[in-house]
Amino acid sequence: MRPIIYAANWKMHLPPEDARQFAVSFRDGVGTLPGRTLWFFPSAVSLEAVCQAFRNRPDIRVGAQDVHWEPRGAFTGATSIPLARGAGATGALVGHSERRHVFLETDAETGRKVRALVEAGLTAMLCVGELLGEREAGQTEAVCMRQLRAGLEGVSGAAWDQVLIAYEPVWAIGTGRNATPADAAEVHRAIRAELARLGAPRSVPVLYGGSVNLGNVAALLAERDIDGVLVGGASLDPAGWAQLVSVLPA
Ligand code: 13P
Prior knowledge:
Elements: E1 4-9, H1 16-29, E2 36-41, H2 47-53, E3 60-64, H3 81-86, E4 91-94, H4 97-101, H5 107-119, E5 123-128, H6 132-136, H7 140-151, E6 163-167, H8 181-197, E7 206-209, H9 217-221, E8 228-231, H10 238-245
């Protein structure tokens, strides 16, 4: 059985002390859950506090929300991989839709970030997903496959063990309108087929994200091709998150 993955993307929330308190109360209240791996993606300034709190929990991974591909230099505002690693992170999100559509990050840039992460020995969680207009125009698969191919260019061999994919339809993020499990599963199957064409082993996890909550998580995880969830809003409250990660596939 592959572990189910529950990932929390805290976006621009939870400053260091709040993040630390969340992590400590979660760590002390929720023991290791068999068959599950948890990821937390705090903001860059809260990264170290969360890594510290979870340092003795091998079932819990902590990553940055974004990284630059250059290891150092004059990139005001950016977080390098060595900086994230120095704070304790073992991975990062790449190409989240807010990076792509708010900060106008390109497909090519996501590829550079994924390659830099795996070369540095960290894990990349590459996010892909279509805009509402693209879905309505029947371009969902074309968009996701393009993002996937560009983001994973140059990944091969053992590096696949350092890659996860998150399918996040942009129209479902923060809107309360999740993709139905069947709709999500259809895109997940296409992603899996593309991953196989790119030479990835079946073990590369593919997560779903977009308005995941306590009410829909079990049904989403019940789909064979959905290996986990990437959660924004419903990951911000410690009690709610503790409940959500305890839900198993329906
Ligand atoms: P919501 O769960 O708030 O829709 O956010 C999803 C997301 O963007 C996670 O990366």
